[in-house]
Amino acid sequence: METGHEIREAIARRDRSAEEVTRAALDAIGRVEPSLRAYITLLPERALAKAREVDAKIAKGEPVGKLAGVPTAVKDLFCLKDALTTCGSKILANFKPPFSSTVVERLDSADAVIVGKTNMDEFAMGSSCENSAFFPTRNPYDLEGVPGGSSGGSASTVGARSVPLAVGTDTGGSIREPASFCNIVGVKPTYGRVSRYGMIAFASSLDQAGPMTADVRDAADLLGAIAGFDPMDSTSVDVPVPDYGVGLRDDLKGVRIGIVRDFEDSIAVDPKMAKLYKDAYEDLRKLGATFVDVTLPHAKYGLATYYLIAPAECSSNLARYDGTRYGVRVDGDADVYAMFDKTRTAGFGDEVKRRIVLGTYALCSGYYDAYYVRAQKVRTLMKHDFDTAFAACDVIACPAVSCPPFELGAKSDPVAMYLMDYFTIPMSLAGIPAMSVPGGFVDGLPVGLQICAPAFEEARMLAVAHAYEQATRHAAKLQPVVS
Question: How many CA atoms lie within 13 A of 176 on its CB side?
Answer without folding.
Answer: 32
